[in-house]
Amino acid sequence: MSESDLPSLWTHEPHTHLEFRPGDKVADIDTSATPGFKGNKADAPTLQAERNQRFADLQEMLYANSRSGDHRSILLVLQGMDTAGKGGIVKHVVGAGNPQGIRYTSFGKPTEEELSHHYLWRIWKALPGAGEIGVFDRSHYEDVLIVRVHNLVPPEVWGARYDEINAFEKELVDGGITLIKVAMFVSLEEQKARLAERLERPDKYWKYNPGDIDERLKWPLYQEAYQAVLDKTSTDYAPWHVIPCDRKWYARLAITELLIEALKGLDLSWPPADFDVEAEKKRLAQA
Ligand code: AMP
Ligand code: MG
């Protein structure tokens, strides 16, 4: 791994604070905390802009390497209840990258066609290609979250999916995909405030869905379902990160660092020219 360029406002690489540890309880998450960050909200805009640039540079390097045969890619999996801030991560963090190398997919209620296939069918189709950063706004984990909470399939069916997901993700990692799994948590109080804002602002109606209140009322069941996800699908090759999201600025900074760390872990450098640079300069001068 290359030398750390972590900004001094972080006490440690964020993943050391955010990685789920066996025994951690969803019920105990302090959603307003800012683990590992010494600064405050006032520090966020400048730092976010700097780190967005760092992310963008590394993303370009990843993409550049794919042009010379490097098949590796990154997949950011965003899971969280409504209003947790998934869209904000897409817009303010991933959005700093070059769209040419970003593969974004949001997973909603499956279509008729999707339902006629295995639940991983639509996931396979959305995986990032060589040099890309894939972003899943919700994911295959909905098939053990909303599906479990609403009994959309019998318990023995969703119950078998945890092992299946682990095996699937192992295959992805072995195939050169670095997975960054992020579980985003807001307090019920903060969620209420964010839903209320959506109802106050015509520019936010599009984000509101009356069903969000029904899901909110099922939070205790979701809490159990998230706990099971974290307990059963945190692996050494694809660990979960638990992100407190009451402070959007913190969640964005933290997830930006997770992306930067993952990119740096690939030990990238600019691919060398596959042509004779000096000869080309001479040719160009005469052209
Ligand atoms: P949103 O992300 O706000 O656009 O909402 C998408 C909705 O689709 C959420 O309520 C998800 O829980 C739901 N959803 C996503 N995947 C599935 C799935 N596999 N089965 C059923 N519902 C799903
Ligand atoms: Mg929604």
If you had to describe this structure to a student in words, what would you say it looks like?
Residues 51-264 form the Polyphosphate kinase-2-related domain. Keywords: Kinase, Transferase. InterPro entries: P-loop_NTPase, Polyphosphate_phosphotransfera, PPK2-rel_1, PPK2-related. By secondary structure, the protein is α/β, with parallel strands linked by helices. It has 13 helices and five strands. The chain has helices at residues 14-18, 44-66, 86-92, 112-115, 121-125, 146-149, 155-159, 161-174, 188-200, 211-217, 219-233, 248-265, 277-286, and strands at 73-80, 102-106, 133-137, 177-185, 240-244. A five-stranded parallel sheet has the order 2-3-1-4-5, sandwiched between helices. The longest helix has 23 residues, at 44-66. It is globular, with a radius of gyration of 20 Å. The N and C termini lie far apart (43 Å). The relative contact order is 0.20. The model has no long low-confidence stretch (mean pLDDT 96). The structure holds adenosine monophosphate and magnesium ion (MG). Adenosine monophosphate is lined by residues 82, 107-110, 138, 142-143, 146-147, 209. Magnesium ion is lined by residues 82, 209, 212.
Short description:
The chain is α/β, with parallel strands linked by helices.
Which sheet architecture does the biggest sheet show?
5 strands, parallel
Per the principal axes of the C-alpha atoms, what is the gross shape?
globular
Radius of gyration: 20 Å
Query: Approximately how much beta-strand content do the residues carry?
Result: 5-15%
Q: Count the E strands.
A: 5
Number of helices: 13
> Stretches where pLDDT falls below 50 for ≥5 residues?
none
Structural class estimated from helices and strands = alpha/beta
Terminal Cα span: 43 Å
Mean pLDDT: 96
In this entry the ligands are: adenosine monophosphate, magnesium ion
- What strand line-up does the widest sheet have? 2-3-1-4-5
Please give the share of residues in helix. 40-55%
- What is the element string, with H for helices and E for strands? HHEHEHHEHHHEHHHEHH
